[in-house]
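User: I'm preparing a small set of examples for a lab meeting where we compare how different chains pack in three dimensions. I only have the primary sequence for this one, and I'd like the structure in token form so I can line it up with the others. Please keep the answer compact; I'll paste it straight into my notes.
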Amino acid sequence: MMSGIRGKDTKPEMILRRGLHRLGFRYHLHRRDLPGTPDLVFPKHRAVILAQGCFWHCHECHLFKWPTSQADFWREKISGNKLRDEANNQRLRKSGWRVLTVWECALKGPGRLGIDLVIERAADWIVSDSSSGEVRGIDGR
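Assistant: Understood. Below is the structure token output for the 141-residue chain.
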């Protein structure tokens, strides 16, 4: 099953790419020279967008639940992902990049915001001068 999990071209990422491109934003994909290989890189705005899956990145929302089978393995794996994300975000900001995280729950599940609103918020953030941001769903917990 794990072999079927993709790190690139995920559905949330593709939704963001199409919507932002339609609005006229141009970007680079998965720049390997930047910490964490951000999904979307906007050099003109010195901004990156990370499309994060709630399960894989331990987001505290209705989509995340700790697995009960092989609990030790999953705690180590997911906690490591979360620590790596924090370190990469810090390294990006130290090198002058602005970081927006768009969580899967903003586009999926009962608390979703809807595609148009997520794209609008991402577009507004790109042209803002905010150093970091987050787009998340409405949490039903």
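A couple of notes for your slides: The chain is about 35% helix and 15% strand. The helical segments are 11-22, 71-94, 115-127.

User: Perfect, thanks.
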